[in-house]
Design a protein that fits this description.
By secondary structure, the protein is mainly alpha-helical. It has one domain: Cytochrome Bc1 Complex, Chain D, domain 2. It starts with a helix and ends in a 9-residue tail after the last helix.
Length: about 130
């Protein structure tokens, strides 16, 4: 194998493995920091739900912010500084669950960046059917 091909192969492996590690880290962060309220799948028992499911949130988020960079900025801002005016949730969701409390002190901006990127990439708004 030529030296350039070896370098390209090694670079590709490193990039792929770092992407897998980032995704695993993002899922772990979400699990530790967000899943106490937000589920990643449609809940079976709607009576026990305390916050909207992530797939619904991402549907509304991508409708308003289809650009990933802008969506990530919104998530970071809203999670730390939520206001009714900034909310993308439907009014009946706010009425049912209330406004999300600020997560200042619960998640760092760096952690939030990782989770927000993962959320945008992982959760498609296609085929979502809300209630």
């Amino acid at each position: 194998m030529k030296p350039n091909k070896i370098i390209l192969t090694i670079s590709t492996i490193l990039i792929l493995s770092s992407n897998v590690e980032a995704n695993n880290n993002a899922e772990e962060l979400f699990s530790n920091k967000c899943s106490v309220c937000h589920s990643t799948t449609r809940p079976k028992d709607m009576k026990s739900v305390v916050a909207p499911a992530l797939m619904g949130i991402m549907r509304h988020l991508k409708m308003k912010y289809p650009n990933k960079d802008k969506a990530v900025l919104f998530i970071k801002d809203f999670v730390l500084n939520p206001t009714l005016e900034k909310s993308i949730c439907m009014p009946q969701k706010i009425k049912r669950f209330g406004l999300m409390p600020s997560q200042k002190g619960n998640i760092t901006e760096k952690e939030l960046e990782i989770v927000a990127q993962w959320m945008f990439d992982k959760f498609s708004s296609k085929n979502f059917r809300g209630r």
